[in-house]
User: Which sequence fits this backbone?
């Protein structure tokens, strides 16, 4: 039986991580014993570390400064000993048969060109999380996404390239990218691609990793025959319910202390900042100067809009 290393980054999500690890414990006990779980806790201000140490002694928990998601995943990656890597959010819950099914799929000789995969991700209310089913990011696909043209023409290959909604979501097929919260990778492919790019602090690291995997000639597959839940937004404190809470104490990110309100604004800045990093790294040389100027202007404009919108939301909700 091949070993699977499950790598998790955590910041202030003690409640949901307990549920995540309980699910993995059940999988390890009843279905797939060759499961290695590594949690990198990025200076949580709640009881995350003590909870893991007390309730899940078989989990390897590492405490590290919060230098972003990519940085924490790189720490976990150095410790991983599995034949396969499963990057999982603390709000990610593989369903019964998913991990074993993925290993069996990858071990099939017919799938030897598949370097990574994701599954059908379902939000807590049962809807499909389309962030796990992404196309190649280009100025055109970004334009059709942000102008909502993809919603008007969801079955058009020309207009729905961002989430690839023109494809049959009930059948397996190749995609360009998926979300970090459920990314299954061959260890050999990960070694070939290298570490996560730490210039991406929170957003964009998954698109960058998938882009690099495909550049090396490996396929990334969407496999809807396997399922996982993604309680979208919990890991960054945007979805709070009575049974799943995150710390209200704020966090320290890259050596800077943020209150909860300040962090939400910073997340908005990082979201558009990731767009610029990705464009500069992978696309700038592929497009004429005029297109680049337009892209940079739009990113700057979106940043301003997102900051203002979050400040208004914070004020309405009384978040400081």
Assistant:
């Amino acid at each position: 039986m091949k070993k699977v290393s499950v790598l998790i980054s955590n910041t202030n999500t003690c409640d949901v991580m307990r549920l995540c690890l309980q699910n993995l414990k059940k999988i390890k006990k009843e279905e797939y014993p060759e499961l290695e779980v590594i949690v990198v806790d990025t200076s949580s201000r709640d009881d995350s570390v003590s909870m893991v140490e007390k309730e899940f002694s078989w989990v390897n928990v590492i405490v590290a400064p919060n230098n972003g998601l990519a940085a924490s995943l790189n720490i976990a990656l150095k410790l991983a000993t599995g034949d396969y890597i499963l990057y999982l959010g603390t709000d990610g819950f593989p369903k019964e048969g998913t991990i074993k099914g993925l290993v069996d799929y990858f071990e099939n000789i017919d799938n030897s060109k598949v370097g990574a995969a994701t599954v059908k991700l379902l939000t807590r209310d049962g809807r499909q999380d389309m962030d796990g089913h992404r196309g190649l990011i280009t100025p055109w696909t970004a334009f059709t996404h942000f102008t909502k043209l993809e919603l008007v023409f969801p079955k058009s290959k020309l207009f729905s390239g961002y989430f690839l909604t023109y494809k049959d979501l009930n059948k397996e097929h190749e995609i360009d990218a998926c979300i970090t919260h459920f990314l299954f990778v061959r260890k050999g492919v990960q070694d070939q691609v290298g570490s996560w790019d730490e210039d991406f602090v929170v957003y964009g690291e998954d698109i960058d990793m998938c882009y690099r995997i495909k550049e090396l000639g490996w396929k990334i597959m969407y496999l809807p025959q396997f399922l996982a839940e993604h309680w979208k937004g919990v890991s960054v404190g945007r979805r709070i319910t009575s049974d799943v809470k995150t710390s209200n104490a704020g966090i320290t990110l890259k050596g800077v202390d943020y209150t909860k309100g300040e962090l939400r604004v910073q997340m908005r800045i990082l979201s558009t900042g990731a767009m610029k990093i990705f464009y500069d790294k992978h696309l700038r040389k592929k497009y004429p100067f005029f297109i680049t100027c337009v892209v940079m202007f739009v990113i700057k404009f979106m940043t301003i809009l997102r900051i203002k919108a979050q400040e208004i939301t914070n004020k309405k909700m009384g978040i400081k």
